[in-house]
Write a structure and sequence with these properties.
single chain, 434 Repressor (Amino-terminal Domain), 65% helix
Length: 110
């Protein structure tokens, strides 16, 4: 596949390659549209995190109660993650990634 580079000079709209940006659509976008898109993206992100947490737990073959006991997180927190009410952050997110990539080693350490 051939790589084509375009130099865009923002003060000169003619420098934008055709078909790359629909300027009419960009200009027609309102603040309400942007806020709606942000809300939709955040909702999708929460759902993705919920599915990831559930997938990790199911791959380990553990119930929610067993999983919460093994990783030292409350059962309510696990339920909130899997229902998309809350999203794992910081150390919890890192732990889920480790459990996803190297479950045996992570569980042995815990």
């Amino acid at each position: 596949m051939k790589t084509v580079r375009h130099k865009i000079d923002l003060p000169r709209p003619a420098s934008i390659p055709p078909g790359r940006v629909d300027m009419a659509r960009v200009d027609a976008t309102t603040e309400a549209d942007i806020a709606r898109h942000i809300a939709e993206d955040e909702a999708q992100s929460m759902q993705d995190a919920a599915l990831f947490a559930q997938r990790v737990r199911k791959r380990l073959g553990l119930s929610q109660a067993e999983f919460s006991a093994r990783i030292h997180v409350s059962l309510d927190t696990i339920r909130n993650w899997e229902q998309g009410k809350r999203s794992p952050t910081g150390a919890a997110k890192a732990l889920l990634r480790i459990l996803d990539k190297a479950p045996e080693m992570a569980l042995a350490v815990l």
